[in-house]
Every structure is written in C-alpha cells, then in structure tokens.
Amino acid sequence: MPVQSLQNTDVIVPQHAPHPLLPFLQSQSQTTLTRLYQRPSSCLSIFRLLGPIERQLIMNLLWLESALSAATMSAWVLPEGKNAYDSALSVMTGLHIAQNSTVKLALNPTFKSSLRQAITGGGNTGSFGVPADKDGKRQSANIENLDAYALERWETILHYMVSSGQGQNPTKPSQGVLYLLQRSGLMNNAHGAVLQITSSGFQFLLHPPHDQLWNLLLQYLHMAEERQMDLVEVLSFLFMLSTMDLGREYSTEPLSETQKAMLEDLRDYGLVWQRKTSSKRFSPTRLATTLTSSSPPLPSSHSTGGSRTADGTGAVALSSGAAQQGFIVLETNYRIYAYTDNPLQTAVLNLFITMKYRFPNLVVGMLTRESVRKALGNGISADQIISYLTTHAHPQMRKNNPLLPVTVQDQIRLWELERNRLKSAEGYLYKDFASQADYEYVLAYAKQLDVVLWENAAKRCFFGTLEGHANVRGFIERRTGSV
Predict the structure, then answer these.
(1) Measured between alpha carbons, how far is residue 399 from residues 220, 305, 329, 363, 427 in Å?
(2) Which one of 124, 217, 223, 408 counts the least CB within 10 Å of its CB?
(3) Strands 452-456 and 461-465
(4) What's the whole-model pTM score?
(5) Cα–Cα dist 482/58, whole Å
C-alpha cells in the first residue's frame, strides 16, 4: 500500500514535532526496549507518540509475514518526501522498532507481535491493567471526583511554584514533588532556604499542561535510574495507565514491587487516586489516561471567569473561558486589568506586577520598575514577561497592531538592561608598551583577530579575550625578538 502522505505533489510534507519522550527512549539499549516491547500496552502507547509517517510505515509492515524490500518501499516515495521518509525510518531504527538494514525493511518481531495483540485483543498478560472486582460496600470514585482530585493536586504544584518565596503561604506539596521540582531546575533555593521559581520554571508555566506533565515525568524517569528502579517497569506502568479507562478501578495485585512503589509518587502528581495508601485498588485520573493521547489532560469548563479548570491548549494548566480567550488587558500607562478569579493566574501575575485592586472577577495592577526588577532578580527574563502577556492577551487586545504597546515592551527590556549594564569576561590586560607605535601596532593586530574587549589609548592599554591571548602574546614576542 503506498505511503499516501508522501505522494501528494501539491502539499509540502508537514514537519511533526517529536514527542519529548522519544529521545529518552532512543537513548536506551536494545535490550531495554525489547523488554519494554513485550507489553502490548507499551507498544500501543509508543505507536501513539510517533509521527503520522512513522505510524503509517508501521501499519504497512505490521501484517506482512516477511520482510519488505527497501527498494520497493522507496519506490512509493516521491522525491519531495524523501527527507521525511528517511527521517521517519531513522526514528523507527533508533527506537529499534524497525531493523537496521539497507536491503530489507521489517519490524522488530517482539514489537510486531505485541502491537498486533494490542490491536486485535487476546492474551491474558494484564498489560492493560486488571479491573478490580466491584466493592458492594464502597462506591468507586466517579469521573467528576477524579477530575477534581487531579486538578487539586496539579494546581497545588503550580501554585506553590509561583507563590513560594513571595511572602505567601501556599499549600506545600510532598517532599518527593519538591525534590523533583529542584532536580528539574524549575525551582531553587539560591536566595536562602525557601524555594523560589527559576527562569526555567516560569518558562514551564507558559507550556501546555501536557508538556508540563511530561517535563516532570522525564525528570522522574532519570531519577528512577538513580534510585535503581527497574526502568522498564516504570515506563510500562506509565504506558499502562495511559491505556486504562477513566472512572474504572484497577487491582494492585498484578503490579510489580516497583510499580506499587510508584503509586505513592503518582498520587502526589495527581495521576492516580486511592481511597487510602494501603488500598488494593486504584483509579487513574484524566492526567494519566491522556498521557499518550491528544486529549486535554484536565477537564475543560464553560466558565467565563477563569475558574479552576484546565485544558491541553492553555498554559498554566487552565482552560477556562478566560484562559482560552485571553484575560489580560495592558494599557500604555503600564496598568494591567486581568479578568480572572483564578488564584493561580493571579499568583503568576503577582510575580512581575504590583497589585492595586482585587475584585471577584478582576485584578488590577501596574508594571513598575520595582516589580519587573524583582521578577528579573528571580531569574524571569523580559522576553518571558512579554511572552506571557502576549499569550494571555484579551480578545480586545488582539485587535491592536502591534498587540502589546511598543512603549511598554521597550521599557520592560530597558529595565532588564539596567540590571545587566555590567558584564564580566575573562581575559588579559596588555599595558606598559614602550612606545605609542608599539601599542598601536599590537592593538591593530588584536583588532584584526577580533579579540579586543576594551581599550584606552591615553593609558596605552587594552583588554583582550582569553581565547586570543596566545596569538597576541606570540605576536608581541616575535616583534620584541626582531627588534
């Protein structure tokens, strides 16, 4: 069957942004990945994470009993799709899904068998989880309760990130979550014992919730290796959760010891719910069941006031009407009107504005030199502040061209330049020249090499870079020796 996405001569093949987990998987050994591919749920999840061309190639090869000639497959690809085709094969080979051969194309037998089983059903491996028996005494958590639980856990993490060290007392996540935030570089305690958000942490808030979640989970995977946890068990459990049904309870009995230990961590992140820590059953939340899908990781809402809701498209894990449409109005006098009642959005704004008034669904503040410099001191850049204001601009603001007042953008950058007026650089100071001619001769040579950082003709001295010192010194020695 021809690769249709590569044969349309009227359409340029779109570039698919790779999922952040794929490079991590490509860094693993073939033995590790083959063990992972023994689980049908893992194969199905990885298949979902791949780009459209990789998925189509896999489906073309999945039901073939023998290898396909590489020349036959290449004949289906038009010249303009050759780069995309080669890139897709490279990804599949790096994941050891396809065998590395220039003659024939075939899928990894373990991956092929497991993916077939995932698609057609059958088997009793429990790869997709084992549903727990109904408990007549207690009613299982419904979807609304699971969504509320996941949202509360996730917003606790985000609210702590933006509020800690700002003179507030936010609810503190577990020690495991705090350690993860530090290890991932989203928070640090450089200014004392209290954790504070970093520049990377503020950039993290600008990402969609799905990317935020995988950012933390990738750091968790790196930590799992350090904690000597079985990486295959960790990955397979995450993939298992992504294929489970929302609102259903599953038994912990078939889980390995590593996976049972993971339940405590995943409860803290809001991925699973248990009635109590010793419970023999658990329920995945929407955060878990959407890990490998394009569905929103948290429930959407029709509220227009910025209520505690989330979506896959709005940053800061919010998908209220305000978050989807934008809620910030910025005036040329640096005054900001934020139409929201969400405490998390308000806390983010508080990082770089001075609050003036708070109403039930409106926050009024000012961009001031002091508030922006405070944000800069916490590692937040001027471009990040401007990006946040642009991303969450109110629909009325989007009628403007440019969207944000140029004077305000320039002033934010000028306040940053004030803070960065001095720059340090390692190098060498050249002085005590015998004559003005010697000074000018050596200086001209250094300028020719583009290694001069500072010069003072009156004092016959200049400062050069560390990298250019060897050449300048050699030039001086040759000139001195020839005199």
Answers:
(1) 42, 21, 12, 22, 50
(2) 124
(3) antiparallel
(4) 0.74
(5) 71
